[in-house]
Every structure is written in structure tokens, then in C-alpha cells.
Design brief:
five-stranded antiparallel sheet; Glutamine Phosphoribosylpyrophosphate, subunit 1, domain 1; 24% strand; proteasome; alpha+beta; 10 strands
Amino acid sequence: MADRAEYARKGIARGRSLVVLQYADGIVFVGENPSRALHKFSEIYDRIGFAAAGKYNEYENLRIGGVRYADLRGYTYDRGDVTARGLANVYAQTLGTIFSSVGEKPYEVELVVAEVGETPEQDQIYRLPHDGSIVDEHGSVAVGGNAEQISGYLDQRHRDGMTLAEALKLAVQALSRDTNGSEREIPAERLEVAVLDRTRPQKRKFKRIEGRALVRLLEAGSADAEPTSGGDVE
């Protein structure tokens, strides 16, 4: 089992990192992804988003399974019965079964399932490692690549009530830090960004941010950061 866990962790670490952050009006997903077709972030249901790091074909199968589960449960019972907690339990059972099976290799994936609530206190973020365990996260979470280093950076700087521009700027700064401590620039065209926006009037809260809208947000975040560039964010 230790060998299987090490195999899965090494596979996940080869992928690019992504981060999920709470901000005042919802939850933002940010990752470095040069592909415009193979998405790391997706909508599962009305208020639920999905993020994954690792092997694309494996987490895409899990995403499709999650969409089917959510659609069936919402149709059979009520749309309000589809929750991130329920979806995380389904994913945990699937990943745990595969991890403990001797007939197939463990999945080289790490998932994040997030649900935006009516208020920030009702937001839910769950991280699911390769072994099927569930970790209830608050504020921010990073998976894939050098996730441990990025998580430490976010824990020190993330705060409640951030604007979307501030949260996006912090996420990009965290992703730009290499394992040796140096920083690099990630252009907007290499970023994949999506949000669960609680202020949207329609039931579906998930939307992607790209193109000029993304550039404007990055510029706004840089402008907001300039007055406090001499010190750490509390």
C-alpha cells in the first residue's frame, strides 16, 4: 500500500499546481494550463465546481461520473439535495476502492469539490487525495505539483473578504513561486480561471473568466497590491 501511495503521489506531483480560494462573493479556481481544450475546472451542478490535478483521462472519467450522479439525484429528488458533501463522499468511495484494489493501479489524481453558499460561512471546499480520504478545507487549498509550498504561501496571505481581483492576484503569485524560491511570470493566456459567483441571479453559479475580462482583473489586482507592496498582507 505504501508503494501504491508513493506511485500516486509522484504522478500527481508531475502535474501543474492549481489553487482554490474563497473571496467575498464566492470561490475562485486558478491554475496554469496552456491548453484551451483540456480543462482542469468544470461545473458539476448549480452551485458546485470541480477541480483536479494529475492524469487528465482519469480525472475526466471522475468528472463525468460526478455530473451523472448530480443530474440523477437532482432529477429523482430535488435540486437542493445535490451537495458538495454528497459528491465528495461518492468520489471518496470510488478513489478508495481503486486505491485498495490489487487488480488495477491507483488513480494519479487529486480532486477539489467546492460549493458556494448563500453566505461565505456556508461555502464548502473538500480536497480528495488519491487514497479516497476527504479533507474539509477553509479559505484556500492547493493541489498538484508543489502544493505543499503553495499552501504555506496562501495560508500566510489569504484573508476573509478579499475581492475577486485580490484573490486572483494572490493565486497567481502563489503559482508563480518555484520550488527553489524564485518567481516567474505566468501570462494571462496560460491561466485557466473560473468562479462560483454567489451574486449571479441564475441558479448556475459557475462561469469561466478569460480573454479581456481576465486581463482586466489581473491589472486591477496589481493596482490594488501596489499601496501595500512594502509589507506582508495581514
